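Re: the multi-chain job from yesterday

Posting the exact lines I submitted so nobody has to dig through the queue logs.
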Amino acid sequence: MARLLVTGGAGFIGSNFVHHVVEHTDHTVTVLDKLTYAGNESSLAGLPEDRVRLVKGDIADADLVDTLFADTDAVVHYAAESHNDNSLNDPRPFLDTNIVGTYTLLEAARKHGTRFHHISTDEVYGDLELDDPARFTENTPYNPSSPYSSTKAGSDLLVRAWVRSFGVQATISNCSNNYGPYQHVEKFIPRQITNVIRGIRPKLYGAGENVRDWIHADDHSSAVLTILDKGQIGETYLIGADGEKDNKTVVELILTLMGESPDAYDHVTDRPGHDMRYAIDSTKLRTELGWAPQYRDFDAGLAATIDWYKANEAWWAPAKDGVEAFYASKGQ
Ligand SMILES: NC(=O)c1ccc[n+]([C@@H]2O[C@H](COP(=O)([O-])OP(=O)(O)OC[C@H]3O[C@@H](n4cnc5c(N)ncnc54)[C@H](O)[C@@H]3O)[C@@H](O)[C@H]2O)c1
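And the result, structure tokens for all chains:
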């Protein structure tokens, strides 16, 4: 049994991880989350109080972080500003949280000798051409495109430097696009599902040719637990489930699974600098640490996600109108 500190544990992937930890281990969890617009306390509802507690606070608050690290065996760092579109609108919070926040945590890990796992994204590698057979590996050079991905790249490099310079006991994982329950309605899949539920036509950026490599959030969680358990200090592991799909295919699948005509959507102006294709080669994680994804059928995982959004309108409805107003102001 270990005492985990999970930053950003009230967000999408962090809350999925906390549910996964409660179900599959006997660890206790302290969630440190600022509860920004993206954090939702109700994503942790129903979890046992003797296993999970929520501390509302900022990862850049050095005094609070120091206090929490004193009672922690291992940290899993999910907290971030995470939405590309917001980073184009107002980059500053991305620097404060993703860079300064990660620095603050690393200094505490250094002081307390705490095991640290840093969660990152495949977007640090930039994008691939549609006709390029290559996939990202741990050796792909960093080439981020947006303020979001560049601040995530910066945070990864800080972690590497704190391992090398100060001996911090850290690992890093870069994961592909996640889907599943508890994802904010600003993001692509939940936005389209909730649009269909509300009777609004889904919106597709440009021609919808952009390819994303989808993984269920629960598979991301099992990979992170595997790395915490067996990962080599100082190493980076790519997490992916061979789930490449273009955005047009995903929108059409959502419509079909929800009983609508697959062409009942609108094209909207593409966002600037929109990455073309992401694809992960997770051979290292699979062969060295023995991890494998459980959700291998994207259609079934997506159908279950649609069911979750249908059953949990009270969870997402408060954010929906604001998100659509934001996109409408951008013509998207
Ligand atoms: N969503 C994906 O597909 C994806 C893929 C790969 C990696 N990631 C990474 O996973 C992590 C989580 O992503 P997500 O999609 O769950 O994001 P999210 O936006 O849903 O959640 C982020 C959480 O962090 C909290 N937070 C933000 N700033 C904070 C601060 N200063 N202090 C404390 N808490 C703060 C928010 O309140 C929220 O609960 C991020 O690091 C992201 O880069 C996401």
